């Protein structure tokens, strides 16, 4: 079955450490997205990519980095510059990079600070 | 900037009762509108979408939503709620290119 796989499901970060969240899709979608979810704040866009080797900052990109070297993969690195990384992170993809079709979501990664 | 507002943070209904979750958007042109549902610790699942045409759209799991341009609303409804409908519901809008704007979510609790 096609879908989006996020791993790991739970992740712990030590102070000063960078961590990378994995997102893989086999839907052959061009566009991929990373969101951060905090209680009571809905979803906020971190980064998005409309095509391989290209990505754009979203509303809260500071302290995060991404790459899009392959169509099916869009990893997110939470750097030590992100001072409040504890959140639920969701990856999504869409067949239409213009955003005119629904986004499909993975099951998320919950990141916590040790 | 566009925004999506879900006025109700929490709603509790009895099983078998009807449900309406409110969503308001702010944008001049007709937006693309979506409702998603999220179970605890899970990703978001699309319930339904509105692009154009008939203002009453049917979705999965017995849900429907009505687009009302005059009220800038896209409320989600279900005639009879089941205990399995307890979840968080998000309204989203896309009318500025390639980004979705999400509302803050409404958490639905279902009483037996």
Count of strand segments of chain B: 12
Largest pleated sheet of chain A: 7 strands, mixed
Structural class of chain B: mainly beta
Task: Tell me the helix content of chain A.
Answer: under 10%
Q: Any low-confidence stretches of chain A, pLDDT <50, length ≥5?
A: none
Q: Give the largest chain-chain interface (CB within 8 Å).
A: A-B, 25 and 22 residues
Q: Any idea what the radius of gyration of chain B is?
A: 13 Å
Distance between the termini of chain B: 41 Å
In DSSP terms, counting alpha (H) and pi (I) runs of 4 or more, how many helices of chain B?
0
The multimeric state of the shown protein is heterodimer
Q: What is the gist of this entry?
A:
The complex is a heterodimer of chains A (114) and B (112). Chain A has 114 residues and is mainly β.
Protein architecture, described:
The complex is a heterodimer of chains A (114) and B (112). Helix content of chain A is 0%, strand content 49%. Chain A has 114 residues and is mainly β. Chain A has no helices and eleven strands. Chain A is globular and about 35 Å long. Chain B contains no helices and twelve strands. Chain B has strands at 3-5, 10-14, 19-21, 24-26, 32-38, 44-50, 56-58, 64-68, 73-78, 87-94, 101-102, 106-111. In chain B, strands 2, 5, 6, 10, 11 and 12 form a six-stranded mixed β-sheet that branches. In chain B, strands 3-9-8-7 form a four-stranded antiparallel β-sheet, with no helix packed on it. Chain B is globular, with a radius of gyration of 13 Å. Classes of the chains: A mainly beta (114), B mainly beta (112). Chain A binds chain B through residues 4, 6, 31, 40-43, 45, 48, 50, 58, 90, 92, 97-100, 102-108, 110, and chain B through 9, 32, 34, 36, 41-46, 49, 51, 90, 94, 97-100, 102-105.
């Amino acid at each position: 079955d096609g879908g989006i796989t996020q791993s790991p499901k739970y992740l712990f970060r030590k102070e000063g450490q960078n961590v990378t969240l994995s997102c893989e899709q086999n839907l052959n979608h061009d566009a991929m997205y990373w969101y951060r979810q905090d209680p009571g704040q809905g979803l906020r866009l971190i980064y998005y990519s409309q095509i391989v080797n290209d990505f754009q900052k979203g509303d809260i990109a500071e302290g995060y980095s991404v790459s899009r070297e392959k169509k099916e993969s869009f990893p997110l690195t939470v750097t030590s510059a992100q001072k409040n990384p504890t959140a639920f992170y969701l990856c999504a993809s869409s067949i239409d990079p213009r955003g005119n079709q629904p986004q499909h979501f993975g099951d998320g990664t919950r990141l916590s600070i040790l | 900037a566009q925004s999506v507002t879900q006025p109700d943070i929490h709603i509790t209904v009895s099983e078998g009762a009807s449900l309406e979750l409110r969503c308001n958007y702010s944008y001049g042109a007709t937006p693309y509108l979506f409702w998603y549902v999220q179970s605890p610790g899970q990703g978001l699942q699309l319930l339904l979408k509105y692009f154009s045409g008939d203002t009453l759209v049917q979705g999965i799991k017995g849900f429907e939503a009505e687009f009302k341009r005059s009220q800038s609303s896209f409320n989600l409804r279900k005639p009879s709620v089941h205990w399995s409908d307890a979840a968080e519901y998000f309204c989203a809008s896309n009318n500025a290119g390639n980004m979705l704007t999400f509302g803050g979510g409404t958490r639905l609790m279902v009483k037996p």
